[in-house]
Write a structure and sequence with these properties.
Strand order of the largest sheet: 1-2-3-4
Largest sheet: 4 strands, antiparallel
Number of helices: 3
Shape: globular
Strand content: 25-35%
Radius of gyration: 21 Å
Oligomer: single chain
Amino acid sequence: MKKITIMSILIFVFIMPLAQADEFEKYPGNADKTFLTADIYYQQVNRNEYTEYPDSVFKIREKILYKDINNVFSLVPKQFGTTTDVSTDGYNPERQVYVFISARYVNKKSFSQHAVFDAETGRMIAGAKQLQ
């Protein structure tokens, strides 16, 4: 009985960390890697995925760590109502992303849009257009 108990404890102690391994293994941290600046990356973005409003009164182009997304969105003036809807599925807080936000007025109505791209894969993580 002692052997079974000891064996169970050992299995639990050594297997559990492996089962939890790395919750961010899908998109691990890459803060130590070097990527293009946000302005240069924007020039390469597929225009079907994101294009700034040509007459924008407010815009942001940033390369940041994933954990800082809410800080960037908090810089958008409230009248544009831009909020983040970025999924946290598998993303390490130390992963680099590009954030693009653009806003404009048309006939006294405010419009905003945003896009978030993974800096390493180039994949769009989130994007939205809003009419306020």
